[in-house]
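Chapter summary example.
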Amino acid sequence: MARVPRRKVTVIGAGNVGATTAQQIIETGLADVVLVDIVVGLPQGKALDLAEAAPVTGHDVRIVGTNDYADTADSKIIVVTSGLPRKPGMSRDDLLATNANIVGGVVKQAAAVSPDAIIIVVTNPLDAMCHVALKASGFPKERVIGMAGVLDSARFRSFIADELEVSVRDVRAFVLGGHGDTMVPLPRYSTVGGVPITELMTAERIEELVTRTRNGGAEVVALLKTGSAFYAPAASVVEMAESILRDRRRVLPCAVLLEGEYGVNGLYVGVPVVLGHGGVERIIEITLTPEEKTAFDASAAAVQDLVDHLPA
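The structure predicted for these 312 residues follows.
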């Protein structure tokens, strides 16, 4: 009897984020994984190591490492993690030109052999790299998505849970806007067991957690000294991939191309969306207070500034 081919996820970049993403995908049994990198031996070695863990972790999906994009053909999802990581003292903006060239090149190669795939961009500066991926792939906007809001919201949720000494499973939070210092955490839409955190904490303490969330990536970079976060970003990618592969239609904050929503046109900005089999099924518009809208517009303006400085 002929075997039914399993779904395939390609992870571009075998560094910490890429390898951890691959590990989490195969250990949850979501899909076969192809780990691809320009460095000869790196993706092959990490894939072999992960494959040899399978008898212990108990998954039956397959992982291969390669330097050849032909091996990534017919992927359902392409995860882009390749690029230079942030280093201490480096802003996401500093990475712009170098990573734009890297992302454009790898996306063009991957999209050519997986024309029906959905792209999840992780490389920083993320919102600008989404524009690069959209142009390089030629895909419709529904199939080029940035992983930003899921990660930023997870950080906000973890800080809230720690502050209130409650389970993270009972905490819900939304962080909108660009993936950077101008992101917009929304305490009014953040709850613990359905109760708004504005009822559980002082305004001053909430503002401290908001500030920590905005600086969440930089806090990790400062502690690691030689790299940037990878466990939480990988987990965030897997949550998005699971919603797509299993058509969960989860409502998740992601960077998507806005065309009039929230008063923004032609720009990737983080907003709540429904993620399903086709990628972005729809964008959800929520009502913002004048103060929230001002912060959101400022965040969008910061993204626009990055896009304006992308290499031609």
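To summarize the output: The chain has two domains: 8-146, 149-308.
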